[in-house]
Amino acid sequence: MSGxxxxxxxxxxxxxxxxxxxxxxxxxxxxxxxxxxxxxxSSVSVYEALLQIRRGRVAIDLPVQEWLHAAxxxxxxxxxxxxxxxxxxxxxxxxxxxxxxxxxxIATALHHDVGVVSVDGQFPHYExxxxxxxxx
Length: 136
Known about the structure:
By secondary structure, the protein is of the alpha/beta class. The chain has helices at residues 11-19, 26-34, 43-54, 64-74, 84-92, 100-112; strands at residues 6-9, 38-42, 77-80, 115-117, 133-134. The longest helix has 13 residues, at 100-112.
């Protein structure tokens, strides 16, 4: 995986894109639909999405395992596992963001040298994401 070949989606972007949700800005949806880069998520996004579904904060129209298969395998989304280097990088990032899962997503993008797609207002505070953050 190299920087120009992949885009890492944060959890909200992935859910919205997979569901074709109107919350996803049309400019981002178009960019994802037209990109030649592969699309990926961190494995923590699977955890976060399923937790949101279980809590009723995200509605899906399929059984959970079928939705997950459709939103990853069928959608061509690579799922990147969290390893020790990513976990360490997340722990050592500046403390701009209090959400440890978002910190892992940021660390995953940095570790793999890929662009990251997020509308999270805290992501731009990370100088290391300069030039690789897609937010609109």
